[in-house]
Write a structure and sequence with these properties.
single chain, about 90 residues, mainly alpha, 4 helices, about 85% helix, about 0% strand
């Protein structure tokens, strides 16, 4: 029983460490820039927009993660719509 509880506790600690690593500002910034590049938006960002993308992971990591997820989802939906209308 104790061994099972120790294993579960270790898994929870590893999951928490992975979550914190995913929220590291440098990781989030790289993810945001990658998503913007895939969407074809990176080169068209103004200086202010680039600064906001750079600051967001430091100021609010959870918001940066949510924004990146939404942006990636919107790009995927837009790509699917364009593919569907091309047929």
């Amino acid at each position: 029983m104790q061994q099972l509880q120790d294993g579960q506790r270790r898994q929870e600690q590893e999951a928490e460490a992975a979550r914190r690593a995913a929220l590291a500002p440098d990781v989030l910034r790289h993810a945001l820039l990658g998503t913007l590049a895939r969407a074809g938006l990176l080169d068209s960002l103004s200086e202010d927009e680039r600064a906001a993308v750079s600051r967001l992971p430091e100021s609010d990591p959870a918001a940066a993660l949510a924004f990146n997820t939404l942006l990636a989802r919107a790009y995927k939906v837009g790509t699917a719509v364009r593919a569907g209308s091309a047929s």
